[in-house]
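Exercise 3.2. Students should predict the tertiary structure of the chain below and write it as C-alpha cells, then compare their answer with the key that follows.

Predict this chain's 3D structure.
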Amino acid sequence: MMTNPELPAPTQRKALMDRLARPHRYDMAVIGGGATGLGVALDAAARGFSVVLLESHDFAKGTSSRATKLVHGGVRYLAQGNISLVREALHERSTLLANAPHLAQPLAFVMPSYKLWESPFYGVGLKIYDALAGKAGLGHTEFLSRSETLERLPTLQSTGLKGGVKYWDGQFDDARLALALARTAARQGALLVNYCAATSLIHENGKLAGVLARDQETGDDIELRASCVVNATGVWVDQLRLQDGESIGRKARPMVAPSQGVHIVVDREFLPTDHAMLIPKTEDGRVLFAVPWLGKIILGTTDTPRDDLAREPLPFPEEVDFILRESARYLSRAPGPADIKSIWVGLRPLVKPADDDADNTQALSREHTVLVSKSGLVTVTGGKWTTYRAMAEDVLDKCFAAALLPAKPGAVTTHLKLVGAQTMAQKISDPPGIHLYGTEGSAVHALPGADRMLGGGLTEAMVRFAARTEYARTVEDVLARRSRLLFLDAALAKSLAAEVALLLQQETGVDPQLESFERLCEQYLSFSR
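Answer key:
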C-alpha cells in the first residue's frame, strides 16, 4: 500500500489497520520487520503473492539497525576456504549497491601492517577477493608504503608501521535500507504494519492456518489467515517455534544462541579520513574496525555470548574496555570514555543444530538457516545484511518445496530498485542528510518546515515526512532510525527530542513516548561519564 505525503498521518495508520482488519486469506504472513522479514515480504509481493507483515515494535528496531554498517563480501570466509559463500556475498553486495545507491556506496579500507609478512600475506588474499568479485569489484587492492598508509589514515600509530594494504567493500545505512525495503514491498502490494505484534499462532488439524495479532497502540486483536507463515524474528525466533511445537504436542529445541556486538561512536577527529581502518587480528584474535559513517567514526565490534534477549541490551564493561584499549594501540590519539558520543549493542542470532527438526532443516549456507516445522511454520534466522535478498529467495524456495505456496519464477528482486534509488545531485544549501532520501528529496522539501533546521541535519520537514510517509510513530522512530542521531550523538538526540515529540504529536495524535526515549539516550551515553 503506497503512502501519500499529503495524507495526514492518523489517516494513514487508520487505513492500514482497517485494511488489516478486513477478512482476507493471505498467501503469506511474515512475522518480523527486520532485514530478513522485509526482504521476504518484498520478494513474495514482487512475485505476485498477497503478503502481510507484522512487526511488534518498529521496523529494524532490533539487530537490523545495529550493524557495523558494512556491505561486504566476507573476507574472513575466504580465509576459511568458503569460496561459494564469498561469491554469493560479492554478488549480493553489487546488487544492493545498484538497487539502493542513495543508501549504499563503496568504501575503501586500509589494513595497516606492523610486521613485514602482513602486507604480502593479507594482500595476496585480497587480490583473490578482487578476482572473485570480477566485474562486480569496487576497486583494485593496492599495496601501500608507510607514507601512503599514513596519508590515508592520518592519525594511525606510526611507530613500527611498515606499510599497508588498501581494498574495497561497501557501506550503508541499515535502518533506512530496512525502511526502503518496507516501502518498496508496500508499493508491490504488501501490507506492512509496525507496532502490531503476532501474539499467537492459529492451528487447525495440526497445521498452521494463521496468526493472531494485536495493535500495540489500541490493544485491538485481529485474526489473520494465511497459507504460509514465516517466522523471521531474528534472535527471537525460538519464541514462536516453541509455541508452534506446543500447539501440536511436539517440543521444539531452541535453535539460536545469541551473541552481542558492541559499537562505540566517537568524533571524526580521531580518524579524519574517508577510509576505514581494519585490524584483522587484535590481541585476543578478534577483528577491529574504525569506520567513518555519517560524519562520525564507529569503533567495534565485539562477539560476546548472551543468555537473555533484551530489546536494548547493555554493553559489558569489559567490551567497552576492549574496544578502547585496542583502538589506543592503533590510533595516535586514543579516545577515552569521555569521548564516546553514543554506544549501542546488537544481538546476533547464531544458529545451533535443531535436532528435533533435522528431517525438515536445510542449512542453506553457513550463514543462515531455513526450516519448516511439522505444522508448516517456516523459520529463517542467521545470515547478515549483505545477503538479505538471497536469504529471501531461499525462504521462497523452501515454501515451494514444502507445497505451502505454488512455485513462481524467482530472481524478481535482482534488478528491483528500492524507493528513492535514483541518486540526486545535492546542493550546498541542502541539509546534510537529504541525500539519503534520493529521489524523494523534493517531496521532503515540499513539506512545511523544510527550511527550519532542528539540529544535527534534521529539519522539521524530515520529521513530518517520517510521520506521513515512513511509518514513524514515536520520537525513537525518528531520532534512532529515520534520522540516525541516537546512534551518532545521543546527547544531541536527547536535546532535540522534545521538539520532535511536539511535531509528532501534531502529525499522529498519539503519545510520541518522549520520556522513554530520553531514558534510552542516557543508556546510549552510559559509558561516557
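Discussion points: The chain has three domains: 9-63+176-255+352-401, 94-171+257-348, 434-524. The CA atoms of residues 80 and 86 lie 10 Å apart.
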